[in-house]
Structure formats: structure tokens, C-alpha cells
Amino acid sequence: MSALAWVIGFVYLAAAVAFVVGLHLMRTPSSARRGNLISAAGMVVAIVATVVVAVLEGTGTWLGWGALGLGLIAGGVFGAVRARTVKMTDVPQLVSLFNAVGGGAAAAIAIADLLRRGGGTVTPTSSVPIVLDVLIGSITLSGSLIAAGKLQGTIPGRPLLFPGARFVNGLVVLVALAASVLVVLWPSTIAFVIVLLVAALAFGVLMVLPIGGADAPVVVSLLNAFTGLAVAMAGFVIGNQAMIIAGALVGAAGTILTLQMAAAMNRSVLSILIGGFGTGGSTGEAGPGAEAANVRALSADDIGIQLAYAQHVMIVPGYGLAAGQAQHEVADLAKLLTDHGIDVKYAIHPVAGRMPGHMNVLLAEANVPYPQMLQLEDANAAFPTCDVALVIGANDVTNPAARRPGNAVSGMPILDVDHAKAVVVIKRSMSPGYAGIPNELFSDPKTGMFFADAKKGLTDIIAAVKQYVAA
């Protein structure tokens, strides 16, 4: 082994250590930002080392280096600007696009390497990673784009099914498998690679289209795991240890998170991929709907009195909070209550929002103290002693119907909001959540509904609370 290879191997090892340490720090919100920076630093080191090796070995052409430079500049600038300017409601879409880019880039690496070799020097040992890279990367690319479209609303969020869909899916899978075998046996035949690429892209589309809006967080996590696997396969294709380690870590972490989130919905990953759960949700105009006969409407003053004289308040954030961009208002309300000696906590459901950890990220942006955020088990233990549970835009994750069999949310672990002494729900209308069924919490005698946009509703409640805490 040359001195250069030894040094580069050591640098890649250091980068891998940074990835592992960063991932470890991401386990808790208080250290997640530091972990993200450490992981990013490790990736920068790995990229620089790879470029240095290419320069010293004299590989590449001026055209190739020019394309690499333009790609780094364009991608780096776009990624930095987009990540800093994205609205919180659009973060899930951005994550899906990142997954798409990662999967597509990994597949492109495999195809480029195969074309460079011309098929003549490709052995079964190297062709298998190429096939897996093209297959997984292409599925990730097209599937993530469809997921981003569903989250953005350009593609309907409800399950999109058509007659014979499962037959078509099976046929596409068989074509992809057959093409994979043919590429391994005859890697020099580009037609087989094209068939594999098209079949994998088609399967990615067909896999995500039937998935409903309620399963969006699980799908985003699953596609993230696919991205990691595709990158690991790309590392095997070009012999880059840093890519193998980074991809394996992302794939493993994404898989674990996917399984945990599926469990939080009491559904298997297979049932999520096969079935269509969720209608995609609806917004509706502010005000009660047709099924609101037993609903008790409240005013901001009513809620202000309840909160001002409470001792323990639990805030339950949902996608409506993100859609209304009201994270700063809810943080202001919590601070106002806390400053007057009222204990305030947040109940976080694992699948609230549109992506894994959506509510945690949303509240962190508003500088909500991490100790105030309670996960499902801790929150449920605290609800019986809670004077007021303030639900903001959460629907299916608070529906008591989940405790009974025979409906769309049966068996799904929920936040036991109805165990609080009083419940206040801020919502624009009585429209159902992604599961498409009414929330029984809304008609509970202890529940009061405040029909308003999250931002405006919280602003009015803050003004009301100030009147009573100052009295």
C-alpha cells in the first residue's frame, strides 16, 4: 500500500468516525444540531480527500473537472439557499427532493461506471452492486418525486389506484428482476440496463401513488433508507469506503426509523406499501361542519380564562400548526403562561406532521425548551393531571376511535388528550384528518372548539390570557 493510499484510508476512517458520532448526537434534540455539523464536516473531509486523490493520480479530463466544479457550485449554492429559506410547511417536500437527488446520483454513478468500462471488464462481483445501485437508486428517485408532489399538493394526497394496479406492479417487478439478471450475465448489453432503469423508475411511481397522506412520514423515512442503500451500493461500484460507510449508516438509521414510525401507526411497512391509508386531508373554511351537532364552540376569552387559571397545560401540535406558521405564537403563549407560574409541556406524537420529527423541528425553530417536549408515552402519563390540553391542528393522532376496532385508525397509538380535565381544539373546520373519519374528541363534552387559523387563533388567545393574568 502506497503512502497516499494509507493517508486517504486514514482520512476516510476519520470521516466515518465523524458520521457515527454525529448520528449518535442526533438522538436527542439538545445535541442534534452539533451532531449534524460534525457529520457534515466528516462529509466535507471525505469529498476533499477524494478530489485530492483524483488530482494526484491525474485522472479525469478538463471537461470532467469543469462539470464537477459547476455541479459543486450550483448544487452547493442551491442547497444552502433553499434549506435556509424553505418554509417549515415545505420541509417534508425538500427532504423528499433530497432523497430523490441522492438516489438519482447513486444510480447515475453506477450507469456511468458501467459505460466507462464498456462491459468488457465487468465481472459478476462488480455487476451485482451496479444492478442493485441502478435498481434502488431509480426507485428512490421516482418514488421521492411522487412523494414530494403529494406533500406539495401538485399530486393528490389521497391513495391513487386504478383497475389492475397490482397486476401492473407485479409485471413491472418481474421485468425489473429479469433485467437485473440479464445485466449481471451480459453487462455489455446497454439495452438491458435501459430496461432495468425504466422498470425501476416505473416501480417507484407505482409504489408511492397508492400511499395515502397519513402514511407520508413513513414513506419519507423509507425512501431515505433507500437513498442510503443506493449510496452504499455506489460506494461498492467505485470502491469508495466513505460512501459505503455513509450509505450504510443512512440506510440502517432510515430502516430503524421506518419500523418505529410504522409501529407508531400500528401498521406494518408492507401494509403501508400495499394499501392506501388516508384521504390526503382537507382544509375547509373556518367554522363547524355538518357533523358538528354536538360540538361546543368557544371564544378566545373563554380559552383565556381556562388557561390563566390552570396549573398544568399540555399543548398538542399538529400539521395545522405548521400550515399556519404559528410556531412562534405558540411559543409566546407558552412563555406567557410559564412566566405566571403555569406548568406547560408539549405532547409530541411520532407521526404528527408530514415527516419524521416534524413537530420537534417546528418547535425548535421557535426556541421551545427541549425539556418541555414530551414523547408519546411520557405525554400520556401526564394527561390525567393536565388541567387544559390545547390541541392545535392535530387530528388523527388524538382520535379516541383508535381504541376501538373496525375503523381506519384502529389500534394506532394516540395521544390520550381526552384524559385531560378540559380540552381546547384550535381548528379551521370540522373536516376529518388524513384517515378520512371524524374525530370523536371534538364531540366529547369536555372539549371546546375554537374555529380559527392557528396563527390568528393563538394571537387572540394570547391577548385574552394577558387580560386575565394581569387582573
TrEMBL record:
NADP transhydrogenase beta-like domain boundaries? 10-463
Q: Which PANTHER family match?
A: NAD(P) TRANSHYDROGENASE SUBUNIT BETA
> Which SUPFAM superfamilies does the annotation name?
DHS-like NAD/FAD-binding domain (SSF52467)
Q: What residue ranges carry the coiled-coil annotation?
A: none
At the top level of its lineage, which domain of life is listed? Bacteria
- Upper taxonomic lineage: Bacteria, Bacillati, Actinomycetota, Actinomycetes, Micrococcales
Query: Keywords of this protein's UniProt record, alphabetized?
Result: Cell inner membrane, Cell membrane, Membrane, NAD, NADP, Translocase, Transmembrane, Transmembrane helix
Q: Which reaction does it catalyse?
A: NAD(+) + NADPH + H(+)(in) = NADH + NADP(+) + H(+)(out)
Q: What is its main location?
A: membrane
Q: Which organism is it from?
A: Lysinimonas soli
Enzyme Commission identifier(s):
7.1.1.1
Keyword hit for Translocase:
yes
Which protein are we looking at?
Answer: NAD(P) transhydrogenase subunit beta
Q: What class of enzyme is it?
A: translocase
In terms of InterPro entries, this protein maps to:
DHS-like_NAD/FAD-binding_dom, NADH_DH_b, PNTB-like
Compartment annotation: Cell inner membrane
- The keyword Ubl conjugation is annotated on this UniProt entry: no
Entry's transmembrane regions: 6-25, 37-56, 62-82, 94-115, 127-148, 160-184, 190-211, 218-238, 244-264
Annotated function: The transhydrogenation between NADH and NADP is coupled to respiration and ATP hydrolysis and functions as a proton pump across the membrane.
Similarity field:
Belongs to the PNT beta subunit family.
Membrane topology per the entry is: Multi-pass membrane protein
